């Protein structure tokens, strides 16, 4: 697992929550974080992905990915985004992560 894959998983979790709530704060974050806007690895606003990379330490594994994602989410100091992320528990995260990693994906 690499940092970009983790970043995409965080995006997917928050995007699913935004689909349900249409929360403006989540939408604003997603606009800058969008990892699919350009063909390269990064985000719509390059500063978002750069900040993410600085906050994610190695080693990064499938097993510790949820904890690493939560560290990043909490670093945003936004209770709405944190609550949205926490709508997925660690068990759900692992199931979705395995599905994501074993299909063709960017990164």
Give a verbal description of the structure.
By secondary structure, this protein is an all-alpha fold. It is 64% helix and 0% strand. The protein has helices spanning 3-21, 24-33, 46-55, 65-75, 79-85, 90-101. α1 (3-21) runs antiparallel to α2 (24-33). The N and C termini lie close together (10 Å).
Question: Which percent range fits the helix content?
Answer: 55-70%
Structural class: mainly alpha
What is the string of helix and strand elements? HHHHHH
Distance between the termini: 10 Å
- β content, as a range? under 5%
**Number of DSSP helices?**
6
Low-confidence stretches: none
Shape: globular
Main beta sheet: strand number and arrangement?
Answer: none
How many DSSP-defined strands? 0
The average pLDDT value, as a whole number, equals 95
Radius of gyration: 13 Å
Short synopsis of the structure:
With 107 residues, this protein is mostly helical. It has helices at 3-21, 24-33, 46-55, 65-75, 79-85, 90-101.
Question: Any chance you could write out the topology, listing elements then pairs?
Answer:
Elements: H1 3-21, H2 24-33, H3 46-55, H4 65-75, H5 79-85, H6 90-101
Helix pairs in contact: 1-2
Question: Which key features would you list for this structure?
Answer:
107 residues; mainly alpha
């Amino acid at each position: 697992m690499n940092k970009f894959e983790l970043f995409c998983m965080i995006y997917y979790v928050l995007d699913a929550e935004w689909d349900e709530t249409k929360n403006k704060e989540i939408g604003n974050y997603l606009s800058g974080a969008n990892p699919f806007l350009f063909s390269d690895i990064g985000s719509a606003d390059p500063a978002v992905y750069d900040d993410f990379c600085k906050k994610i330490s190695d080693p990064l594994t499938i097993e510790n990915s949820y904890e690493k994602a939560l560290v990043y989410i909490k670093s945003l100091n936004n209770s709405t985004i944190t609550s949205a992320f926490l709508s997925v528990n660690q068990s759900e995260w692992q199931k979705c992560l395995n599905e994501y990693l074993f299909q063709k994906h960017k990164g």
